[in-house]
Design goal:
- The chain is an all-alpha fold.
- It has 2 domains: 2-339, Up-down Bundle (Rhopdopsin 7-helix transmembrane proteins), CATH 1.20.1070.10; 355-407, no CATH class.
- 74% of the residues lie in helices and 1% in strands.
- Strands 1-2 form a two-stranded antiparallel ribbon.
- It is globular, with a radius of gyration of 28 Å.
- It is found in: Cell membrane.
- Keywords: Cell membrane, G-protein coupled receptor, Glycoprotein, Membrane, Receptor, Transducer, Transmembrane, Transmembrane helix.
- Residues 63-325 form the G-protein coupled receptors family 1 profile domain.
Amino acid sequence: MDHLNSTSPPGRSPITACFVNITAAEKAELILLQEKLQHRASAVFKLYYGYLVIPFAVIALILNIIFVMAVCSAIKKHRVSRKCYVLIINRAVGDIIATVAAMVTVTYVLVKVEPNRDLVQVMDTFFIASFWSALISYTALSSLKLYAVARPFNYRKTVTMKRCLYLVVISWVFFAFVLVYTLGITALTKIPALQAWSGCRLETCLRTMYRTRNTFMTFIYFFTIICFIGTVFFVHRARKFVSSFHQKDSTARPRILRNRFPMWKLALNVGTFAIFHIFYVIWALGLLTITDLCFFQRNYPAMMRLLGLVRLSLLTRMLLDPILSFVTDFQIKRSMLSLFNINATVQPFDSRKQFAMSTSETNSSDNASGTPAGADKTKTTTISEGTTIRRKNSASKESESGEPPVSVDKSNDAD
C-alpha cells in the first residue's frame, strides 16, 4: 500500500497528503499500520472479491448468455416486441460484461499472494461501467413506457426501431465515457510520471472523480423510479378515461387496457432494479456525505469489505433477472426451451392469460347484447413450438359474417 508512504521520490509530489505531516514515532507506527492494512486488504480481496463471487458470477454469466440467445430467437421469429427487448438485450449484454470482469478479478485476487489494490480497482471499473449500461437500459424502458402512455398517438411515429438502437448506442457511449474517465483520472493519480505532471492526489482528483460518478449514478437511479411512478399514474388516468367512455357507449366492445400496458412486466424489472441497486445508492450517498478527505484511506479494508458486499447485491440482480424472465415471460420461455430442443408444453403465464380474459369479457359483452351463449366460445389449446391461440366461432356465425378466426400468436410484432 504505497499510498501510505509519507515520502515521495524527488520531483514527485506525494500521492496523498493524509500521512505527510507526521513525527518519526508516528512514521514508525505508520509502517506497522501499512503492513497490517495490506494483510487485511488482501484477506478482504480474496474473500469478498474471490471466493464469494465465484458462484454468483458463474451462474449469472451462463444464465445471461442463454437469455440473450433466447431473446434473439424470439425477436427473429417475431414473437416479442423488438423495441423493448432490444433494450433488455442491451441490459443483459452489460450484465455479461460485468460477470466476465468479476471472473477476471476473481482469478487475479486468488492467484496473486498480495493483490495490488490499483489493479483490483482498474478491473473493478469494468464491472461498474458495464453495470452502468444496465442502468441506462432500465431508464430507457421506463421512459419509453411513460411516453407510450402519455403520448399514445405519437408513440409509433416517434419511437422507432432505429431510435431504440440509438438508445443502445448511447448506453455504450456512457460505458466508454465512464471507463475512460475513471481510468484517465486513476492514471493521472497513480502513474509516477503523470502524477508528477498533474499533481493529482487520492483526496483531490481521484475523490472528485468518484464523487462525480456516484452523483450521476444516484440521479439515474431515482430518475428511473420517478419515470415508473409517472407511468403508473398515467395508466391509471387512461383506464379511468376508457372506463367512462365505454359506460357512455354501451355498443363498443370493451378493451382491457392492461393488455396494451402490461404493468407487471415493467414493475418486475424496475422492482429488481430498485431493490438490488439501492445498496449501491446507499453506498454512494454515504461517500457523498463524508467530508473527511482521508476517511477512505484510513479505513480502506473496511470500505472495500462494504463495497464487496454491494457488488454481491449487484451480481444477485444479474442472476435473478434472467430467471424471472424465464419463469414469467411465456415467449422467452418457449424460445429458451427450443434452443435445447425440449418439446414441452408451455402454459401462457404472462400477458396471454390476460388476452384470454379480455376475449372472455368481449364474449360476455356479445352475449349481453343478444348473441346466444353457445355461439362464441374461447377454446383452450396446448401451446408448443409453431402453434397459435385462436378464438373459434361456431359454423353458423362464420357463414353469416364471413370473418375468419382471430390469430393472436404475433400480437407483439407491431412493436
